[in-house]
Design goal:
Elements (H helix, E strand, L loop, with lengths): L2 E3 L4 E2 L4 E6 L1 E6 L5 E9 L5 E2 L3 E2 L5 E6 L6 E7 L2 E6 L8 E8 L4 E8 L4 E6 L7 E7 L6 E7 L5 E6 L5 E7 L2 E8 L4 E7 L6 E6 L4 E6 L5 E5 L8 E6 L5 E6 L4 E7 L5 E8 L4 E9 L3 E8 L3 E6 L8 E4 L6 E11 L2 E8 L4 E8 H10 L2
Antiparallel strand pairs: 1-18, 2-14, 3-10, 4-5, 5-33, 6-8, 7-8, 8-9, 9-10, 11-12, 12-13, 13-14, 15-16, 16-17, 17-18, 19-20, 20-21, 21-22, 23-24, 24-25, 25-26, 27-28, 28-29, 29-30, 31-32, 32-33
């Protein structure tokens, strides 16, 4: 079944909601490493936030939902200022918020659920300092899950989401009008992660049984799925695609041990455990940099943040605790601002702050070698 929606665009934000001078301090991690820690915003403990993006100028962009009013905002760290823009000013409109940042056009693309009208919405700030919002899908009784947006190099805007039956829908924006259809229904899905490396659209999905599924759209726009060997009863996961289009996946099946699923040099899939925590896992993130070297980070309920740094060209994942950065809780995100600095976005539950920490990868590597 195909669905069509009229443009119905509306200006959902009135330019900049707030701008403040960046607030940061240095914290000593060890004898060789200092972290520059920014306080980005004071947030309610119920606040949800997206993964961060780093634009071509090395500036941070992320989106978050106010915990009390459920209003979505875009946050940007630009030069010496941190600014926020309202994405949609309607109350209770920002659930299931997802962000994609297009570096080519310096534009943010957000998807979120508007609960009062039971609609999935898309908003962007193309050519404007404020956001224009569109209804992507609205159906009585529909249960929306895991919405994601992406922009192709030709400017095509795509939104993917799951319905209450775990079917994957694809909505395309043409001249402000969204058309949606089901593109995958073989196995019921519980959530998706969408990527667009140079090789084309890629998905890492979790089925309702806890299996991990690799889904791609080929040059003929056909969807092909592959059940990944090994992982079963996965409780949570995250993924990243490197410069060669290979997937790097972190997952847990017991909320304590974190496992790394990757494509090895012998062209086989491999799984290795990188940490077995004594505390309950709350968040995890993975990213790759030069030579497609993976780095990971986790948050646990009692031990805060730990980062796992690999030597260039390896998957060594050497651990280093970062508990001194603050009492981190919930999700976190990783990014490379400019080499050799890695950034960690996290929520500090003691001060109710969204924080960004920048660390020197080479300093951490040197300390780990010194401690052997």
């Amino acid at each position: 079944m195909n669905k069509f929606f009229c443009p119905a665009a509306f200006c959902a934000a009135v330019a900049i909601f707030g701008a403040v001078k960046e607030n940061y301090r240095y914290l000593r991690i060890d004898t060789l490493t200092r972290a520059k820690v920014y306080s980005l915003a004071t947030l309610d403990a119920r606040t949800e936030y997206s993964d961060m993006f780093i634009n071509a100028r090395g500036e941070l962009i992320c989106a978050y939902v106010d915990g009390a009013q459920k209003i979505p905002y875009l946050l940007q760290k630009k030069g010496g200022m941190v600014s926020t823009t309202v994405i949609d000013s309607g109350w209770n409109t920002g659930r299931l918020l997802s962000l994609y940042y297009d570096n080519r056009l310096s534009s943010a693309h957000c998807v979120y659920y508007d609960a009062p009208v039971n609609a999935l919405k898309y908003a962007d700030n193309l050519g404007s300092s404020s956001f224009n919002a569109y209804v992507v899908d609205r159906a009585e009784g529909m249960r929306y899950r895991s919405p994601q947006a992406i922009v192709e190099t030709n400017g095509g805007i795509h939104v993917f989401f799951l319905d209450g039956k775990g079917q994957l829908w694809h909505a395309v924006n043409t001249n402000g009008m969204f058309r949606s259809r089901i593109v995958y229904r073989e196995r019921p899905l519980s959530d998706i992660r969408l990527f667009i490396p140079e090789q084309g659209m890629r998905f890492i999905c979790r089925t309702e049984k806890g299996e991990l599924l690799y889904l791609l759209r080929d040059e003929r726009r056909r969807y092909k799925s592959y059940l990944l060997p090994g992982p079963a009863a996965v409780r949570r996961y995250t993924a990243f695609f490197d410069s060669r289009g290979r997937s790097h996946i972190l997952f847990t099946d017991d909320d304590r041990s974190v496992k790394y699923f990757y494509y090895a040099v012998d062209s086989t899939f491999q799984i290795k455990t990188i940490v077995a925590s004594k505390s309950v896992l709350e968040g995890m993130a993975i990213i790759t940099e030069r030579l497609d070297t993976p780095h990971a980070a986790i948050t646990t309920r009692d031990e805060g943040i730990s980062i796992f740094i690999s030597d260039p060209g390896t998957t060594s994942f050497k651990p280093r605790t970062l508990s001194m950065l603050g009492r981190a809780r919930g999700a976190l995100s990783l990014g490379i601002t400019y080499y050799p600095y890695i950034s960690v976005l996290f929520y500090d539950s003691e001060f109710n702050e969204l924080r960004l920490a920048e660390l020197n990868l080479e300093s951490i590597r040197a300390f780990v070698r010194e401690m052997r």
